[in-house]
Records
---
Amino acid sequence: MNATQTAPQPSVLARQSFIEMSARERARSLLDPEGQRELLGPFDGMQSPWLPRQGIVPQSDDGVVVLRGRLDAREAVIAALEGRFQGGSIGEVCGAKICAALELALRDCEAGRPVLPVLLLETGGVRLQEANLGLAVIAEIQSAVVALRRHVPVVAVIAGMVGCFGGMSLVAGLCSHIVITRQARLGMNGPEVIEQEAGVEELDAADRRLVWSLIGGEQRVATGLADALVEDDAAQVREQVRGFALQAPAAARSTRVAAWRARIDALAAREDLGPGELRAAWKAPRQAQGDKA
Ligand code: COA
């Protein structure tokens, strides 16, 4: 796995916000300008059959943009989730689009024609209105990521503002590399869900400073659960994605089960862990094991 990195910061005025872009703009900004083509775009009308039955207006791309093209002249495919549509949640159709894109890339990789996959994850996880179908397709996406990462690095970008939650946070965890911004959040359950299920004494979801100190991008990089912290800058995101995507496939984070177990064991006895202590405690076994994750 890669060394944890913090990229140099460009001046604020020189930046083009990546977070403010739509999913389509984000995907376009990452690929070489020439030869981009969208697969199953809005005019193909692949939309959710389930949302209208629940009184929700569907979107004609079901909230996922799949773009084929090149990354530094290498074949690539990007699946970008639109956080502004149903919180980027995964339903049957959009999930199948991601899965099919990854499986086609896998087929090419197996035939000796590498295709670099990049996932732009902006998602509240399974779409609550399509629960079981969403769960099933997320499992298929996870399988495709695991199969693909043997051939090529699978890069995930979590930019914000939604973040990455639920089954899709597991997808992120399976990827070869995670690029994240300070504004992003990464976690299994969203803060509101934790507060609702475990009570406000467990987590006050309205306390933004606390939430970000626990699951924000900076903390995730500091504790080895993401690989590169980038500014909200399209050029910097692209540079970092390119850096990771063009590397040879490395051992994925999720394969190092013994190292993670050792870290969890070292922390299990402690009840006083705040975000700062967690960073310090997390670093100790990492240094002892020479593990750079
Ligand atoms: N399914 C359907 N819609 C979802 C969704 C999901 N899984 N996650 C988010 N959304 C929708 C919200 O209902 C909201 O819709 P609205 O604008 O029509 O009201 C929109 O996405 C934005 O969500 P909101 O909660 O207003 O934004 P936020 O920035 O405050 O919080 C999350 C974003 C993702 C942190 C929060 O929505 C959340 O905690 N979601 C659940 C995440 C989770 O725990 N998933 C795991 C379930 S196992």
Note: The chain has two domains: 14-254, 256-293.
---
Amino acid sequence: MASKLAAECIFCRIIKGEIPSVKLLETPTTFAFLDIGPLSEGHALVIPKYHAEKLHQLPDEFLADTLPVAKKIAAALNLENYNVLQNNGRLAHQEVPHVHFHVIPKPNREEGLT
Ligand code: 5GP
Ligand code: ZN
């Protein structure tokens, strides 16, 4: 499937390998890697190999693999508590204008407590 990437986009450049990342998983339409500013250990990002800023602009064929990849990451990391988050637009806290899903592990804060 032909991907559509943008020269100036940080995440498109990560997909192309022009910017280094810690890759977790890749499919023909999707790329997953660790967030550079993790909210918790293992915070991952899942992105389509298609440059669309917001979810409603993304063709379905590039959306199809994103949640299955997020699911594989959650299973591989053996996560019990986690959030899957997807922001659209500046007021909704989107910083990088390329569709992405966060997989954010929720550490067990009760560990070690008596
Ligand atoms: P947003 O606020 O747009 O939903 O989230 C963007 C996320 O991308 C942030 O959590 C931020 O840490 C991450 N990020 C921004 N630039 C880079 C980068 O160059 N590499 C990686 N791995 N993550 C990035
Ligand atoms: Zn992009």
Note: The longest strand covers residues 30-34.
